[in-house]
Every structure is written in structure tokens, then in C-alpha cells.
């Protein structure tokens, strides 16, 4: 993983958690006690987080800091989409096999 990929992952997680909590950038900035401009710069990838800011944002989002480093919601959604597609395909194949078996009786 590159530093750029890490930054993308952390920022994606912050944004996804912020939206899930129903917070605007401004409200999250206020809750985390950081400037609104800093919050905008962070999500806009113009500024990287210090350890102090990272902790403030995690606390404001009510998550452990490590969760900001886990695969992002986007990555998880892609995985979930693939899983759902495969599951639907398997169910259809089983249904077809059962239908063919019943037709032979």
C-alpha cells in the first residue's frame, strides 16, 4: 500500500462515517473541534491528518481510530456487490437444476 492509497482509504472512511452519522463537514469540524477549512482540506486531500486531528475526528465520529484504516466503505460495497451477484447466480442455478429434476418426474 502506498501513502497515497492510505490517505485515500482514511479520507474515504471519514467521509462515509460522517455521512452515515448525518453530519455535514461543518458539523463534524465543530464536533471534532477543528476548523471548518481544515475539515474541507482533509476531505479534499489538500491536507493530511496529524495524529491529534485523527484522534479528534475518530472521537467525533464515535469510532476507534483503527477503524479509519480498515478497507473503506467503497471497497466493502464493491466486495458486497460481487458477493450479492455471485449469490444470485448460484441461487438461479440451483433453481434451474431443481426445476429440471422436477420436470423429469
How far from one another are the termini?
56 Å
Give me the secondary-structure category: mainly alpha
What's the number of helices?
Answer: 5
Secondary-structure element series = HHHHH
What is the overall silhouette? elongated
Strand content: under 5%
Question: Radius of gyration, rounded?
Answer: 21 Å
**Biggest pleated sheet:** none
Number of strands: 0
For the residues shown, what is the average pLDDT?
A: 87
**Uncertain residue segments:** none
Question: In a nutshell, what does this entry contain?
Answer:
With 105 residues, the protein is mostly helical. 72% of the residues lie in helices and 0% in strands.
Structure description:
The radius of gyration is 21 Å and the shape is elongated. It has five helices and no strands. Helix 2 (25-32) packs across helix 3 (36-43). With 105 residues, the chain is mainly alpha-helical. It starts with a helix and ends with a helix.
Amino acid at each position: 500500500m502506498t501513502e497515497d492509497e492510505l490517505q485515500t482509504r482514511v479520507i474515504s472512511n471519514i467521509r462515509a462515517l460522517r455521512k452515515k452519522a448525518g453530519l455535514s463537514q461543518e458539523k463534524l469540524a465543530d464536533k471534532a473541534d477543528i476548523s471548518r477549512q481544515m475539515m474541507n482540506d482533509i476531505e479534499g486531500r489538500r491536507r493530511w491528518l496529524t495524529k491529534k486531528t485523527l484522534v479528534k475526528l475518530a472521537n467525533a465520529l464515535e469510532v476507534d481510530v483503527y477503524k479509519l484504516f480498515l478497507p473503506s466503505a467503497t471497497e466493502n460495497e464493491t466486495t458486497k456487490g460481487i458477493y450479492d451477484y455471485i449469490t444470485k447466480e448460484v441461487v438461479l442455478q440451483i433453481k434451474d437444476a431443481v426445476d429440471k429434476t422436477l420436470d423429469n418426474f
